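We were asked to recover a plausible sequence for a given structure. The inputs and outputs are reproduced exactly as logged, with field labels preserved.

PROBLEM: sequence recovery
POSITIONS: 122
GIVEN STRUCTURE:
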């Protein structure tokens, strides 16, 4: 899904995390990973996936309560991991096989604190 169709007028994308190549090695997750859209804007954290049946979840950036990062031994070596984002009254969004999960955590906290700066993970 194109991000330009999702963002609201005046909303600015500040960070876009990326899946690792490991995510595409799991055949059962291939379609889900190819149809995943994730971004952090100055207003919200957004995650959607699905091709025929779409699931979309967002948390207002000021309501992000915790960001849990889990990395296995190999995840630490190759710098990927699982991110669990919890929001006040919004539940938890689980993101698996993401590049630089600690950088994601740092960027969200920076956006919450100042709202300035733009970063795209490549």
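RECOVERED SEQUENCE:
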């Amino acid at each position: 899904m194109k991000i330009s169709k999702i963002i609201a007028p005046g909303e600015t994308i500040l960070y876009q995390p990326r899946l690792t190549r490991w995510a595409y090695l799991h055949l059962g997750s291939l379609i889900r990973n190819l149809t995943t859209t994730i971004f952090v804007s100055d207003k919200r954290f957004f995650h959607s996936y699905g091709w025929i049946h779409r699931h979309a979840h967002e948390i207002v950036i000021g309501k992000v309560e915790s960001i849990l990062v889990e990395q296995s031994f190999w995840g630490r070596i190759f710098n990927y991991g699982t991110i669990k984002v919890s929001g006040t009254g919004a539940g938890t969004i689980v993101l698996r096989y993401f590049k630089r999960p600690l950088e994601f955590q740092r960027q969200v906290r920076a956006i919450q604190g100042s709202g300035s700066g733009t970063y795209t993970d490549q």
